[in-house]
Amino acid sequence: MTRTQSLLINGEWTAPASGHYEVINPATEEVVGLAPEASKQQVYEAAAAAREAFTTWSRTRPEERAAILDRAADIIRRESDPYTTLAQAETGATTGTARGMQVAVGEARFRRYAKGALEPTETAIPPQINEAGPMGKAGIFGALEVRQPVGVVTCITSYNNPWANPSGKIAPALAMGNTVLVKPAPQDPLSVFRMAEALTEAGLPPGVLNVVNGRAVAVGEAAVDSPDVDMVSFTGSTDVGRRIAEVCGRGMKRQLMELGGKGAALVLDDADLDSAAMGIGTTFSFYSGQICTAPTRVLAQRAVYEPLLEKLQAYIGYMKVGDPTAPGTVVGPVISAAHRDRVESYIELGKKEGARLVAGGERPPLDRGFYISPTLFADCTNDMRIVREEIFGPVVVVVPFDDEEEGIALANDSDYGLIDYVWSGDVSRAFRIARRLRAGGVGVNTIGRNMEAPFGGFKQSGVGRDVGSYALHAYSELQSVVWPG
């Protein structure tokens, strides 16, 4: 577990120019391994290697790309146990989450895009009859829409899931014939290097996938501003996404951005409160609230406001906080001491803003690890910072409302618009409200997702859509081919 990791550049495991740093287990504060610190020049070299490999890889037969992705999925399944152990150590996820929602999802996404590599990339457009004129003779013109790979794609991944998030970028990008430069989150990069090892063993040619890493801002900047990079796919905070977009804009680079979220959960007066409480309660447990799709901003209609608070408070009482490797643990640590401090500063801010602390708000009595007790605030208003800003921790805020129109207005009064939720016993009512919410996705009586449905945000929650075939579209450019009949 204390392995010293190298960079992957042009098919070679390369010593980092700036040394190594310790990756810390957030549950035990022990060293998991030594992660590499790339130099800016090494990032540029990796991007250049991807550029050189693009000409050949983009022209490989789809069946060949599919076979490599399928073999990578086989290797991930074969190595599931050690990969799960590493992912859990890096992230502090519970065993079930590390196995089922991290490594298993990584495998599933490589399987999905092995099939995706075989999806049609050409679509016929109905012929058009043109009269004679300045553009030439009269005739019937056929046309074809062709999806072409973008080129070199930089994938900058998030720390909350070092398997699902990177695989959701790497697999469709490779399936479409792009070459890839990966910059993992510095908090837990080692799992991404295991993914790269699986792809290398599966037969991915040198330079098609390159992995660099580092805590220095310059490493990420180089991965974005390299002249060899055609597109940037980023998952992370809106502030960082804004800076990346500025650089991409100067070079007209394509972007796919999944940014922050502050999901509104409208709980209407006819809702199944047990179902709503269970859905909202996952915020406390799932990745310890470190997930942009969490229903962290609860809007409860007056008639069910206090009963819902009681159920959420009771839900917290059932959740065991502690060692994520121990049976029965529901809530593990947050990713780092620095992030724990940030979440705790929001909890203190909520108290100062006048919100009522219903549960939590303190550190659990554990000797080590970066833990925060699940925290529930009531009597909040939409102008409070704890309601408006993404906390990214096990904190839920509850705002009361009177009627549907007020609830919809409160939900839309946000800088974010990733995923919202509606709980109602009347499905037609719920769907009617869902259509009025300014969010990229809406869950009706569920926090579940359809993994073929487009995923992305409105407003400051991002640009573009991925998941399913939409990810293949995201990593491609449209080309028109026209000919006379």
UniProtKB/TrEMBL annotation:
One Pfam family in the UniProt entry: Aldedh
GO molecular function, one term: oxidoreductase activity, acting on the aldehyde or oxo group of donors, NAD or NADP as acceptor
CDD domains: ALDH_CddD-AldA-like
Residue ranges occupied by any Aldehyde dehydrogenase domain in the UniProt entry: 13-481
Coiled coil (residue ranges): none
Superkingdom per UniProt: Bacteria
Family: Belongs to the aldehyde dehydrogenase family.
Name of the protein this chain belongs to: Aldehyde dehydrogenase
Species, as recorded: Streptomyces finlayi
Source organism phylogeny: Bacteria, Bacillati, Actinomycetota, Actinomycetes, Kitasatosporales
